[in-house]
Write a structure and sequence with these properties.
Jelly Rolls; Hypothetical protein af1432; four-stranded antiparallel beta sheet; 9% strand
C-alpha cells in the first residue's frame, strides 16, 4: 500500500516537471522556507525530489480563486499580487519574512495570485509536505531564547502592565490611518448613531476604551454593554463622538519600525475580519445577536494592543519584531483577560477573550459568544494558512455548537460571503 502511495506521489511530481519552464528543485532552494527550515537536511533532500521549480511570466496566474489545487507554493524570486475574497490586494516579494511561508491557500482557494513581472516559484504537493513533517524530528530549539523571554521580558512586561492597570493609565495603540479615518468621520457637522457605530468599529483600541467608559461605575448600570449600538445608546451620540475624537490621535502607534507597524496592522485586520465572520456565524446560524458577536470578535485579541504599546517604550521589543511576535503568542490571551476584567467588560465578552485560542473549548450549555468567535477565527486561520495548521472541523466542538452540527463547505462559503458584506458596510474592505 505504501509503495502504491509513493508511486502516486511520484507521478504527481513527474507531471509537474514535464510542464513548461519546470525543473527539478535543488534542496538548497527549499531550505529557507517553512517548514523545511526546521528540518534536518536529509528530509529536505527527500522533499526536494517531489518539488518542481518553474518560471512564471508577467501577469501569469499562479493560483485562481476557487481552485482545488492541492500544492504548496513558495516564492523564490520576483513579486506576486495577492487578491483575497474581499477584493483587497497585497504584494508578496521574494526574500521577505512573509515569503518564507507557503502562499496563502484555502480549498477551494480564497485567493487569486498572479505574477507581477517575471517570477520563480517552487511547487510541492501538500501531501508530500505533510508526510515529511510527520516523519522528520522536531528541530532542537535554543532553550535560552524562550527562557529569556519567559523569565525576563514577560515578567517585566506583566509587572509594568499590572501597574498601569492599577493606576488606570493603560493606553492602547491605534494605527494612524485608522485614527485619521475616524477623526475625519467625527469631524462632520452631523453624524447618525449608525454612522458612528460603523466608524468606531474600524479600530479595536478605540472600541475597547469606549467599552471601558460605557461599563464604568459612572453609569451605575446593571447590564454590561455587549454591542456598539448599545454603547452609543448608553454614552449618547454626542459623548461617544467626543470621547472617540479624543482617543483618535492620542494613542496613535508611533514606533518607527515599519515591521512593527505592519505587525500591528495585521493584528487589527485580524480583529476586523474575525468580527465580521463572527457576526455572519451568529446571523446565519441564528444563535446570537450578530452585533454582540461582532463586538466579541473585535475584542477577541485585544490583549495584543498593550504588548504593542509596551514595545514603543522598550528597546528589546522595538528593535526585535520577532520578539513582539513571540510575546503576542505567549502573553496576549492573559493580558486581554486582565484588561477586560479591570475595565468591566461583560462576562460573555471576557469569556470569548479567554477561550478563543482553544480549539477544544466546548460551551457549557447554550451557544455562547466564545464558540461563535472560535468558529469565526477558524475561518480566518483557514483562509490564511489552510487546513494543515488546523484540527478537522468535527474536532472543534465550538463549530458544531455554533452551526447546529450542520457545518459543511456550502455553509462556510455563506459565512465568508456574509462576512464580506459586513466588512463592506463598516468601511473596512
Amino acid at each position: 500500500m505504501e509503495m502504491n502511495r509513493t508511486k502516486r506521489t511520484l507521478s504527481i511530481y513527474l507531471r509537474f516537471t514535464m510542464q513548461r519552464n519546470a525543473s527539478r528543485t535543488k534542496p538548497g532552494n527549499l531550505k529557507p522556507f517553512f517548514p523545511f527550515a526546521e528540518m534536518p537536511p536529509e528530509y529536505v533532500i527527500v522533499a526536494s525530489r517531489f518539488a518542481a521549480t518553474w518560471s512564471a511570466d508577467d501577469q501569469e496566474i499562479i493560483l485562481e480563486s476557487n481552485s482545488e489545487d492541492t500544492n504548496d507554493y513558495f516564492l523564490l524570486k520576483g513579486v506576486l499580487l495577492v487578491e483575497d475574497i474581499y477584493g483587497a490586494t497585497s504584494r508578496l516579494a521574494a526574500g521577505t519574512e512573509r515569503a518564507t511561508q507557503p502562499l496563502p491557500q484555502l480549498r477551494p482557494s480564497a485567493y487569486r495570485i498572479s505574477a507581477e513581472g517575471p517570477a520563480t516559484l517552487i511547487r510541492i504537493p501538500q501531501e508530500v509536505t505533510r508526510r515529511v513533517r510527520s516523519e522528520a524530528p522536531e528541530k532542537d530549539m535554543a532553550l535560552e531564547d524562550d527562557a529569556t523571554l519567559d523569565i525576563t521580558q514577560s515578567r517585566e512586561f506583566f509587572n509594568d502592565f499590572k501597574e498601569e492597570l492599577r493606576m488606570n493609565r493603560v493606553r492602547l495603540p491605534s494605527l494612524a490611518p485608522s485614527a485619521a479615518s475616524i477623526h475625519g468621520l467625527l469631524s462632520g457637522s452631523k453624524i447618525s448613531a449608525d454612522q458612528l457605530v460603523s466608524g468606531i468599529a474600524m479600530d479595536p483600541a478605540i472600541c475597547a476604551k469606549l467599552l471601558k467608559m460605557a461599563n464604568s461605575s459612572l453609569f451605575n448600570a446593571q447590564e454590561k454593554v455587549e454591542t456598539l449600538a448599545s454603547l452609543v445608546d448608553r454614552l449618547g451620540v454626542y459623548s461617544t463622538r467626543e470621547i472617540a475624537a479624543c482617543f483618535a490621535f492620542r494613542d496613535v502607534f508611533k514606533n518607527s519600525s515599519a515591521e512593527l507597524v505592519e505587525r500591528l496592522h495585521a493584528q487589527v485586520s485580524q480583529a476586523q475580519q474575525v468580527s465580521a465572520m463572527a457576526a455572519a456565524v451568529a446571523e446565519i446560524g441564528d444563535v446570537a445577536d450578530p452585533e454582540a458577536a461582532a463586538l466579541a470578535g473585535l475584542m477577541h485579541n485585544v490583549g495584543v494592543l498593550p504588548i504593542f504599546s509596551y514595545s514603543m517604550h522598550n528597546v528589546a521589543y522595538a528593535m526585535n519584531p520577532n520578539l513582539v511576535d513571540r510575546a503576542v503568542a505567549k502573553m496576549s490571551q492573559e493580558t486581554g483577560v486582565l484588561l477586560a476584567r479591570k475595565w468591566r467588560f461583560g462576562a460573555r465578552i471576557i469569556g470569548s477573550i479567554e477561550n478563543s485560542h482553544d480549539w477544544s473549548y466546548e460551551p457549557d450549555g447554550p451557544v455562547d459568544l466564545a464558540s461563535i468567535v472560535i468558529t469565526a477565527k477558524y475561518h480566518f486561520v483557514l483562509g490564511r494558512t489552510g487546513i494543515r495548521s488546523l484540527p478537522k472541523p468535527h474536532e472543534v466542538p465550538s463549530i458544531a455548537a455554533a452551526t447546529g452540527g450542520k457545518f459543511d463547505e456550502k455553509l462556510s462559503l455563506r459565512i465568508l460571503a456574509r462576512a464580506r458584506e459586513w466588512l463592506s458596510r463598516a468601511g473596512r474592505q
